[in-house]
């Protein structure tokens, strides 16, 4: 019975499912990219840097002396047949020469013109601690003076450039301001106004776009101010920056791996916010604020002339991806996307990207004594995702709800809760039965086996009792008379008269006269006719067939 019970328990109790993170690389039977994206998206955030200030540019005027010399040169070029003699061709030639050397032909004058402007950029960052430390690229939090001037010029000077271009065209009598002429004239003032622009009252701010309580990365998301804790040198230096968003707790994070986790030929996965999506008006705000995942092979390890290591990969990246985490197939950060190749025409190339290795990230975090950590939020979320992808919806639902309680601002958990409830309602749940249920089933099977064994033994005992019983109507001698006594002790005892059918006519065993049955030592009780007593076993058994 014990062996049978052990066998039943072994069959009925399957091994309990291991936690998703118990074994390295253990994951549901879904594509690596699907699994990675779901786990890492909550920790990957859109970041922004913003500069505000007052832009001032002087009014410009034509240097008459220089312009007269240029006009004479135009006449000579026409006479020499180098340019056509029509006024439009002459105007184009003049504007091209002025744009090539604006400070020779234009001079500053008054009044000064001013405009308030705001410029900035979008990048990617990721939480490294549950209390609000975020990693991103150095060039995602600050720009050089030259680059900043270009940004302000593009943002603030367009109106002035267009106005000045129309004025210089009006000064040339008889010239029609078609699109080509207007573009050439504007280029003159783009160059002049940018070169003479001044920025006053410059201020910088950093922020992280977070969702509001209730979850969902949509129009309810708001920019949360971030503090710049440390910043390195922009590419090709150690392009690293550390931000801190105060008042945070239970934030989802991503774990850091090691440089040795990946090598040439391995697949790398980049998460981030490509500008070609976040800056386009064609997509909804909600869809623009969801990270994109790209993948490609680890091509080679490079080192800059200043000794900074970088990983070259063919995983596609775009403007806006900068600062995004780069993952191994096991879901650990092995680097941060920093730069991409640019064609001669200034177009970004998808074919090559450069990744700052995780060892540099750890080095920089250590300088500020920041230790990467993982909150229960991430642990439960990852466990719930593994259950969800296995269709264990009943198992996943309470874990998703725990995540929502721990971090109400979680951008994705509310959607997973809704989808999980819908799957349960549709009967799609495939969760394993609870251990208690298996124990009860095993106990029931074991009890059934015990009952079968008992019944079999009882039936066997009754068969033996029938085989050994005396003929019906005869009573066996008492036990002490069933053994043969030695000859010296044997004596003849009077044989009692045989009672009629139905019993032994003696009082020692409770049987009365013919057909009667009584208590021990008593007579006269009627024999009911449906039972006989087997004296040896002390049990009742039914009379043989055919008797009543």
UniProtKB/TrEMBL annotation:
Record's keyword terms, sorted: Membrane, Signal, Transmembrane, Transmembrane helix
Top-level taxon of the source organism: Bacteria
Classification via InterPro entries: Peptidase_S1_PA, Peptidase_S1_PA_chymotrypsin
Signal sequence bounds: 1-20
Biased composition regions of type Low complexity, renumbered to the chain: 500-527
Region of interest: Disordered: 467-548
Transmembrane segments: 435-456
UniProt cross-references to Gene3D superfamilies, sorted A to Z: Trypsin-like serine proteases
Protein name: Trypsin-like peptidase domain-containing protein
């Amino acid at each position: 019975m014990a062996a049978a019970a052990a066998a039943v328990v072994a069959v009925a109790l399957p091994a309990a499912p291991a936690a998703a993170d118990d074994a390295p690389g253990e994951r549901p039977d879904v594509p690596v990219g699907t699994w990675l994206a779901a786990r890492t998206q909550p920790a990957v955030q859109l970041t922004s840097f913003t500069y505000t200030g007052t832009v001032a540019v002087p009014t410009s005027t034509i240097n008459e002396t220089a312009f007269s010399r240029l006009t004479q040169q135009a006449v000579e070029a026409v006479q020499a047949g180098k340019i056509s003699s029509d006024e439009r061709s002459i105007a184009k030639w003049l504007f091209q020469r002025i744009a090539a050397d604006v400070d020779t032909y234009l001079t500053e004058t008054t009044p000064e013109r001013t405009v308030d402007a705001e410029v900035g950029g979008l990048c990617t960052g990721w939480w490294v601690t549950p209390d609000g430390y975020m990693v991103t690229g150095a060039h995602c939090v600050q720009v050089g003076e030259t680059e900043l001037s270009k940004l302000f010029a593009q943002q603030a000077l367009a109106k002035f450039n267009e106005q000045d271009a129309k004025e210089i065209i009006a000064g040339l009598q008889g010239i029609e301001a078609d699109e080509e002429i207007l573009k050439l004239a504007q280029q003159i003032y783009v160059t002049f106004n940018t070169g003479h622009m001044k920025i006053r009252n410059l201020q910088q701010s950093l922020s992280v776009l977070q969702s509001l309580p209730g979850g969902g990365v949509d129009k309810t998301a708001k920019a949360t101010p971030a503090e710049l804790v440390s910043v390195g040198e922009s590419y090709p230096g150690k392009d690293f920056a550390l931000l801190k968003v105060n008042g945070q707790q239970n934030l989802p994070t991503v774990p850091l791996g090691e440089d040795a986790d990946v090598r040439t030929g391995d697949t790398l996965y980049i998460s981030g916010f490509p500008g070609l999506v976040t800056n386009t008006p064609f997509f909804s705000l909600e869809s623009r604020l969801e990270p994109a995942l790209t993948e490609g092979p680890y091509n080679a390890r490079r080192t800059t002339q200043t000794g900074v290591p970088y990983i070259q990969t063919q995983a596609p990246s775009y403007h806006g991806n900068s600062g995004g985490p780069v993952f191994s197939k096991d879901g650990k950060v092995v680097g941060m996307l920093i730069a991409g190749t640019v064609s001669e025409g200034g177009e970004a190339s998808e074919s090559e990207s450069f990744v700052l290795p995780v060892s540099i990230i750890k080095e920089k975090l250590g300088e500020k004594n920041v230790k990467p950590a993982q909150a229960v939020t991430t642990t439960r979320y990852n466990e719930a995702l593994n259950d969800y992808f296995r269709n264990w919806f009943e198992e996943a639902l309470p874990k998703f709800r725990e995540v929502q309680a721990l971090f109400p601002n979680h951008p994705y958990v509310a959607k997973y809760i809704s989808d999980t409830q819908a799957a349960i309602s549709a009967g799609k749940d495939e969760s394993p039965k609870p251990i208690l249920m298996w124990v009860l089933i095993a106990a029931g099977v074991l009890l059934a086996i015990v009952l079968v064994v008992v019944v079999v033994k009882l039936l066997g005992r009754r068969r033996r009792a029938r085989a050994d019983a005396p003929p019906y109507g005869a009573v066996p001698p008492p036990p002490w008379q069933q053994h043969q006594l030695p000859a010296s002790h044997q004596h003849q005892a009077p044989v009692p008269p045989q009672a009629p059918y139905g019993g032994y006519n003696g009082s020692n065993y409770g049987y009365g006269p013919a057909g009667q049955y009584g208590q021990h030592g008593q007579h006269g009780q009627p024999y009911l006719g449906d039972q006989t007593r087997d004296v040896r076993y002390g049990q009742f058994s039914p009379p043989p067939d055919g008797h009543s």
